[in-house]
Amino acid sequence: QVQLVESGGGLVQAGGSLRLSCAASGRTFNPYFVGWFRQAPGKEREFVARVTWTGASTYYADSVKGRFTISRDDAKNMVYLRMNSLKPEDTAVYYCAAGSVTSTSPNRWQYWGQGTQVTVSS
Length: 122
Description:
Blueprint: E1 3-7, E2 10-13, E3 18-25, E4 33-39, E5 46-51, E6 58-60, E7 68-73, E8 78-83, E9 92-99, E10 111-112, E11 116-121
Parallel strand pairs: 2-11
Antiparallel strand pairs: 1-3, 3-8, 4-5, 4-9, 5-6, 7-8, 9-10, 9-11
């Protein structure tokens, strides 16, 4: 079992930046894939980014490519999502997920955090 806890959300103006953190407990992230998803009110949960368990490979949704960066620090058992040039449409609850397979579908991920709210004002 892996327990995930997100932090770092908040209110930011458009064009600003935030860094989300995901801490794992129970067992380490290795050898899981780790991903970030988000869910806006009235919308389905959508894939944002993921990193392989080695940290060597990352993948992003087109909507965040070039603005968001996912990284992991296995020594600290942490995964981060750096979000730059934020837009109002980035407003959502952001979730950290871990799993033994990678997919853009949230149904394929095994472990989830409770989420952290990100609100971008225009």
